[in-house]
């Protein structure tokens, strides 16, 4: 009887050890996102964003589990540098100091138009940074814009011409402040604005005031993440094909999107 107990205990300990090893061997990617729907969303909305869903599908094909952490963008950058999160979706590739050392995918998760927005009743249209002097510009703290706009922001951040926003819901707050007259225009990616205009029922209050460029946004792994090379290679090979699949189209449609709307 004593011998039987020893055998049972030994089998139990072996099973626990195997479970522990399996858990340790589980490959997990922690993806950080702020309220930048439809790319990344507040989980309270019932959705994490299409970047997370595509990552879940494509990285899952290689046996990786994807976990979503919802944090403001500036904190996401801090966690990224500290190694507390592994991946940030939507990284601008060129001249972006936040991701200078990151392992970026070659194929962008989206490449939409960057446009200016103002109140519907205003006649203002963006022509150049000089036209921004006609009023006050709203910007999101920590976000990377294109070089000319970054230069303008740096020159005017202390003279009342720029209003910087740091919040968990930066685009929604930008729209509300614009509508309330706190500033006169802001620049943002078209799909993000269209999504919020529909959600907040502000389509009659805010209008597009010229688009400037297309901005490819990439999946960015921290440089020391062990699986980055393999995962980026898999993404680059399969992402565009997956976008066109019934499953990919269904994910986009959940967010009111099409391939054309994210790849302009």
TrEMBL record:
Keyword Nucleotidyltransferase in the entry? The reply is no
Instruction: Output the superkingdom of the source species.
Output: Bacteria
| Keyword Cell membrane among UniProt keywords | no
Q: Which InterPro entries match?
A: Solute-binding_3/MltF_N
Residue ranges annotated for the Solute-binding protein family 3/N-terminal domain, each copy included: 30-120
Alphabetized Pfam families for the sequence:
SBP_bac_3
SUPFAM superfamilies in UniProt: Periplasmic binding protein-like II
* UniProtKB keywords: Signal
What's the protein here called?
Answer: Transporter substrate-binding domain-containing protein
Source organism of the structure: Undibacterium parvum
């Amino acid at each position: 009887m004593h011998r039987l107990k020893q055998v049972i205990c030994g089998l139990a300990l072996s099973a626990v050890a195997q479970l522990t090893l399996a858990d340790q061997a589980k490959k997990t990617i922690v993806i950080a996102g702020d309220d930048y729907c439809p790319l990344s969303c507040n989980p309270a909305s019932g959705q994490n964003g299409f970047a997370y869903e595509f990552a879940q599908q494509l990285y899952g094909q290689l046996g990786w589990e994807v976990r979503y952490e919802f944090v403001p963008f500036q904190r996401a950058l801090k966690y990224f540098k500290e190694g507390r999160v592994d991946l940030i979706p939507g990284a601008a590739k060129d001249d972006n100091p936040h991701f200078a050392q990151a392992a970026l995918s070659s194929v962008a998760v989206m490449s939409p138009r960057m446009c200016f927005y103002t109140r519907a009743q205003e006649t203002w249209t963006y022509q150049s940074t000089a036209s921004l002097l006609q009023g006050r510009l709203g910007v999101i703290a920590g976000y990377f814009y294109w070089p000319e706009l970054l230069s303008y922001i740096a020159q005017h951040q202390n003279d009342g011409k720029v209003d910087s926003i740091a919040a968990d819901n930066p685009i929604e707050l930008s729209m509300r402040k614009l509508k309330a007259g706190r500033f006169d225009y802001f620049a943002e990616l078209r799909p993000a604005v269209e999504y919020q205009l529909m959600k907040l029922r502000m389509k009659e209050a805010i209008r597009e005031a010229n688009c400037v460029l297309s901005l490819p946004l990439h999946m960015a792994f921290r440089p020391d993440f062990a699986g980055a090379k393999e995962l980026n290679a898999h993404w680059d090979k399969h992402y565009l094909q997956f976008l066109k699949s019934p499953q990919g189209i269904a994910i986009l449609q959940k967010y009111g999107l099409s391939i054309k709307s994210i790849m302009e």
